[in-house]
Amino acid sequence: MTTPRFNRLLLTGAAGGLGTILRERLKGCAEILRLSDISPMAPAAGPHEEVVTCDLADKAAVHELVAGVDAIVHFGGVSTEHSFEAILGPNICGVFHIYEAARKHGVKRVIFASSNHTIGFYRQDERIDAHSPRRPDSYYGLSKCYGEDMASFYFDRYGIETVSIRIGSSFPEPNNRRMLCTWLSYDDLVQLIERGLFTPDVGHTIVYGASDNTPQWWDNRHAAHLGYTPKDSSEPFRAKVEAQPAPPADDPSMVYQGGAFAAAGPFD
Ligand code: NAI
Ligand code: 15L
Fold first, then answer.
1. CATH of the domain at 100
2. 3 pLDDT tier (thresholds 50, 70, 90)
3. Where would a tag sit more exposed on the chain, N or C end, judged by fewer CB atoms within 10 A?
């Protein structure tokens, strides 16, 4: 277990798929984990935990939520493609509320759960890095681009440092062909978050969150200072995944890095 290094660490999205994992796995990073979500969370607060129900779209509530924390792991929000109106409050207003509250309460480090959908319209035969122009594949991907820009602005203007993790697909195992490239194991995700929290002088760093998969679409050279060394790979799951019938070669899941998100909508 990591030696506690923060007094109080805030985790948003704590009732979600990744939040439930991180609730356990980030315990060693702080004396007290403050866990927040709009949805109910089970179990209730245990030792060294605080549970706060909060809608990210509610500015006053987010300001109260952030008071007294030393760092923020921001994983809350809408996590798949929806109408712009559904994404606006949790993801666009929500990320502003988080950074503005961080400024007011003197929080100096944020980990932002960004997404591969910021670049999802690149094709699967292209290799890109963190300086490649973004190509969002969805309103959801656009909201993550906005979150990254919010992080950049709050560093340049107020010195609040962020590591934006462009998470690929973080699930127990890869379950389709695309995920053989995008999969991020939970252990590798936790490594990225810990390095993001404790590496000095990160400014605003964008890092791709993928395990040591073959092939690699994403070059992490611009995040080398984090020292991220993925330990897992999708390779042991390849035979199981490839035993599934293959989608047609022109299916978006086989063409675009963002897969099916590139074909979602319209929502009218
Ligand atoms: P999830 O949907 O399971 O969790 C998101 C949590 O945010 C939910 O518990 C939900 O109740 C909460 N939430 C939604 N609207 C809210 C609001 N208005 N106020 C407060 N909380 C709200 O998603 P998951 O998979 O756990 O992802 C966590 C984060 O990581 C998300 O930000 C997602 O965009 C990002 N991400 C996840 C990836 C993955 O592979 N799981 C890939 C790329 C990014
Ligand atoms: C994401 O950004 C989503 O939050 C997650 O549910 C997956 O769809 C993932 O991307 C992915 O691209 O596999």
1. 3.40.50.720
2. low
3. C
Domain residue limits at 99:
6-263
**Residue 206 in contact with residue 166, Cβ under 8 Å?**
yes
Indicate the number of domains in the chain: 1
- Token pair for 183: 């999969």
What are the angstrom distances between the C-alpha of 224 and each of 100, 118, 195, 203, 205?
Answer: 29, 20, 11, 13, 10
**Which uninterrupted H or E stretch holds 112?**
strand 109-115
Whether residue 85 is contained in a domain is answered as yes
> Would 57 be classed as within a structural domain?
yes
State in Å: Cα 75 to ligand 2 middle: 12
Question: Residue 209: CB within 6 Å of ligand 1?
Answer: no
* Residue nearest (by alpha carbon) to ligand 2 atom 13: 169
What is the number of other CB atoms lying within 10 angstroms of the CB of residue 107? 21
Residue 268 within a domain: no
Nearest CA to ligand 1 atom 4: 16
- Ligand 1 site, residue 56, Cβ cutoff 6 A: yes
0.85 surpassed by pTM: yes
Determine, yes or no, domain membership for 92: yes
**CB of residue 170 inside a 6 A radius of ligand 1:** yes
Ligand nearest to the CA of 186: 1
Distance 192 CA to ligand 1 centre (A): 17
Q: What is the pLDDT of residues 234-255, one digit of tens each?
A: 999 999 999 999 999 999 999 9
Q: What is the pLDDT of residue 266?
A: 96
The contacts of residue 202 (CB under 8 Å, 6+ apart) are 109, 161, 162, 163, 196, 225, 226
